[in-house]
Design a protein that fits this description.
The complex is a heterodimer of chains A (361) and B (175). Chain A has 15 helices and eight strands. Chain A is an alpha+beta fold and 361 residues long. In chain A, a hairpin with a 2-residue loop joins strand 2 and strand 3 (30-37). The termini of chain A are far apart. The model of chain A has no long low-confidence stretch (mean pLDDT 87). Chain B starts with a helix and ends with a helix. In chain B, the strands form three sheets. Chain B has a three-stranded antiparallel sheet, with no helix packed on it. In chain B, strands 1-4 form a two-stranded antiparallel ribbon. With 175 residues, chain B is an alpha+beta fold. Chain B has helices spanning 2-14, 48-52, 83-87, 134-140, 145-148, 152-174; strands at residues 36-38, 58-62, 68-74, 93-95, 112-118, 120-121, 128-129. Classes of the chains: A alpha+beta (361), B alpha+beta (175). The complex binds iron/sulfur cluster (2 copies).
Chain lengths: 361, 175
């Protein structure tokens, strides 16, 4: 009988350069089991949120994670608004959707880029990042920052997109579209990418349901669950987009699904720019939050994000609790990694697009 | 490799896509959220900026002689969120497009913007009131510029006087 060894991977993990510790049981080159240890960069943000007032928490939640840094404050604001009975003006809703989708495109391109890097195809990685740069420039030009947009606030959004900015944003999108298309072709056909990622890290649908995975990981395994469709918030009800799904459930299909979602997001942004009504982008004044509880959820780039809020009527929340998408996806690695080769570990880990800063908030 | 070759050649011919900073200025968009800046001539010491600042980068210290407030904006604590600028009712805090924030470690505790905002004085009794900078008077005090510069007590008195005067006129007209 072959002997198994325990191979420590981490805390500085190869795929992410972020700390997560894996104890991997290997038999030769084959993975037989896996233990996960988190907690290396726990920041205690939920406790911090209880010591900051509602407005300060907008900034705090934006800093939970850099790649979905708009989803967090947007969902938090939704929870506060539900509790305070605030209706965000329609233009504000549209602006929130635009910000969310710009972030989604950038986030997905980042993930597929890293995949190319892990395959060892660094020039493709550089190119994916270069394509993503169009969205980074869009964020900087429209919102003033490349990662933390600072767009959401309680009762609406902080910046409007005027004619000039809209023209600039359209220009960026027009430049992005052909490049995104081209990139999709490369990821789809390139033999190097295909050999390294197809049939690797498979998560069958039954297992996806059992582990209750969310986001692109679930959708690539045939669970077409998207909060934007299942429980539409903001203005998603009035926007046309297709929930992407696939049945292969391997590393390659997850990457391709992300690229297709990026294409959908681009079309959502275009629709928003076209349909957006004139009007205020936020409510007047600063709202007070009454005592009570509320929940809000949204589809972050990595999947369903849930915020729970409890207020005692003071200017500081009594409790803010959030469940991040990545949290649901970690355990499914047990299935994805079973029987894989040691060299595929980083690829599989990256394919769930894990966000350590979300997990260790 | 093949599908990518075309892109690679194209990128090679395009040359570098990074800015040649520091040999040439890097492009900065107009809306860029850089270093925050405080204009004491517009501040009314309402404290909203401090209330919304998650980073605790804004300090307001009352002067010992009670003549005003020292306003300190710590650039090293600031996270450039722009909440202060968004909620400031008078536009006294703004986000500039300046991102050149490197400085020596020894300047760590002095790298801030300090300004002094003097309290206002009631134009009648001289009591201490919130600052009444000219820009604010022009903006908010246009309906009755005189009364805008009064303390609450004098303002009440002037209002009562105004109302009685009006009543007297009405009475006289009726008679
Ligand atoms: S800077 Fe603006 S928000 Fe802050 S105290 Fe002065 S007027 Fe108020
Ligand atoms: S930009 Fe944000 S962190 Fe900086 S001073 Fe203003 S509110 Fe505070």
């Amino acid at each position: 009988m072959a002997e198994t060894y325990t191979l420590p991977v981490g805390p500085l993990h190869v795929a992410l350069e972020e700390p997560m510790y894996f104890d991997i049981k290997v038999e030769g080159e084959t993975v037989r089991g896996l233990d996960l240890t988190a907690g290396h960069v726990h920041r205690g943000m939920e406790a911090l949120a209880m010591h900051r007032n509602y407005f300060q928490n907008v900034t705090l939640t934006e800093r939970v994670c850099s790649l979905c840094s708009n989803s967090h404050p947007a969902t938090y604001c939704m929870a506060v608004e539900t509790l305070a009975g605030i209706t965000v003006p329609e233009r504000g809703q549209y602006l929130r959707v635009i910000a969310d989708e710009i972030k989604r495109v950038a986030s997905h391109l980042f993930n597929v880029g890293i995949m190319a890097h892990l395959v060892g195809f660094d020039s493709l990685f550089m190119h994916a990042m270069e394509v993503r740069e169009l969205m980074q420039d869009a964020k900087e030009g429209v919102y003033g920052n490349r990662m933390n947009l600072g767009q959401c606030t309680i009762g609406g959004t902080r910046t409007d997109i005027d004619k000039e900015t809209a023209r600039f944003l359209r220009g960026q999108i027009e430049a992005l579209k052909p490049q995104l298309h081209e990139l999709y072709g490369v990821f789809e056909k390139d033999p190097l990418i295909r050999t390294r990622t197809r049939g690797i890290g498979v998560l069958p649908e039954a297992e996806a349901r059992r582990y209750a995975v969310v986001g692109p990981v679930a959708r690539a395994s045939g669970v077409a669950y998207d909060v934007r469709r299942k429980a539409p918030y903001a203005t998603y009800e009035d926007l046309t987009f297709e929930v992407q799904s696939d049945t292969a459930g391997d590393v390659h299909s997850r990457a391709m699904l992300r690229l297709r979602e990026a294409v959908e997001s681009v079309s959502i942004i275009e629709q928003c720019l076209k349909q957006m009504p004139e009007g205020p982008v936020k409510i007047e004044g600063m709202a007070a939050v009454p005592a009570g509880e509320s929940v809000a959820r949204s589809e972050a780039p990595r999947g369903e994000l849930v915020y729970f809020l409890r207020s005692d009527g003071s200017d500081t929340p009594q409790r803010v609790k959030w469940r991040v998408p990545t949290y649901m996806n970690w355990e499914a690695l047990q299935v994805m990694m079973a029987g894989c080769q040691v060299a595929d570990i980083p690829l599989i880990v990256n394919s769930i697009d894990p966000c350590i800063s979300c997990t260790e908030r | 490799m093949l599908p990518f070759l075309k892109i690679m050649v194209k990128n090679l011919l395009k040359g570098p896509s990074t800015d040649p900073f520091p040999f040439a200025p890097a492009k900065t968009p107009k809306r860029f959220r850089g270093c925050a800046s405080h204009d004491e001539s517009k501040c009314i010491l309402c404290g909203i900026c401090k209330h919304v600042c998650a980073a605790g980068a804004i300090q307001m210290r009352a002067a010992e002689d009670g003549s005003g407030v020292e306003y300190v904006l710590w650039h090293n604590s600031c996270v450039f969120c722009g909440m202060c600028a968004h909620y400031c009712p008078t536009g006294a805090v703004t986000m500039t497009d300046n991102w050149h924030l490197s400085h020596l470690a020894e300047e760590k505790y002095t790298f801030c913007e300090t300004s002094f905002v003097a309290f206002g004085e009631c134009s009648q009794c001289g009591a201490r009131i919130q600052p009444r900078p000219q820009v604010i008077v022009d903006q908010l005090g246009t309906r009755s510029p005189d009364r805008f510069l009064l303390c609450p007590k004098c303002k009440r008195e002037s209002q009562v006087k105004h109302a009685t005067d009006k009543n007297l006129i009405q009475l006289r007209e009726q008679q």
